[in-house]
């Protein structure tokens, strides 16, 4: 029986790459997206072209009150498409960044980051836990910025630090059901994250590349396949870990 992964923010960036990587590894995918249905549909089509099953479901991870209804929609989709009442892997990828010094960060910016990256991860896992199969997996996306610092990312990194702590608690509490929980922490990546701050800013790109042992910043193809590998049976004994995927940034 094929494994089914639900990925938040799977219509673009690292979420999209992760979804396609999982499909290439033989898994089926639930593409959760916030606002671009056309993009999500394209990802579904790409997954289906790889011979896997997929469906796109709308979800705003900052709207915790919507999670029970989303769980109902998910349950219906699982039964209709897969004839199942559960899925196997939850990948909490959705998120955004704020490039603002501490002295200029507004309360609204701070709250927005924690709503998406911390409360969203916490309460989505809570809402979907009854639907996650025993022996399943949860991957929470963190960031290299919890280990090293770069001016302007304080609030974002603080939120991701909370995610790393939450990951360990999830691993402990969900362990009796055989559910492994880990955090994946990318370094600087060339995507549209933060308005393309690393991808489109040559000076910042060169700065991070110069701090990286392998001599460049990361690409989506450096991250998605790693997550797909982490979800494989070969990594069934890995849990409660923070796994940095940064090419050796700031070591």
Automatic annotation (TrEMBL):
All residue ranges annotated as the Ketoreductase domain in the record: 3-187
Name of the molecule in the record: SDR family oxidoreductase
GO terms assigned for molecular function: oxidoreductase activity
High-level lineage: Bacteria, Pseudomonadati, Pseudomonadota, Alphaproteobacteria, Rhodobacterales
Alphabetized Gene3D superfamilies for the sequence: NAD(P)-binding Rossmann-like Domain
Homology family: Belongs to the short-chain dehydrogenases/reductases (SDR) family.
Entry-linked PANTHER family: OXIDOREDUCTASE, SHORT-CHAIN DEHYDROGENASE/REDUCTASE FAMILY (AFU_ORTHOLOGUE AFUA_5G02870) (PTHR43639), SHORT-CHAIN DEHYDROGENASE_REDUCTASE FAMILY PROTEIN (PTHR43639:SF1)
Keyword Transmembrane helix: no
Claim: Amino-acid biosynthesis is one of the keywords in the record: no
Domain of life: Bacteria
Keywords noted in UniProt: NADP, Oxidoreductase
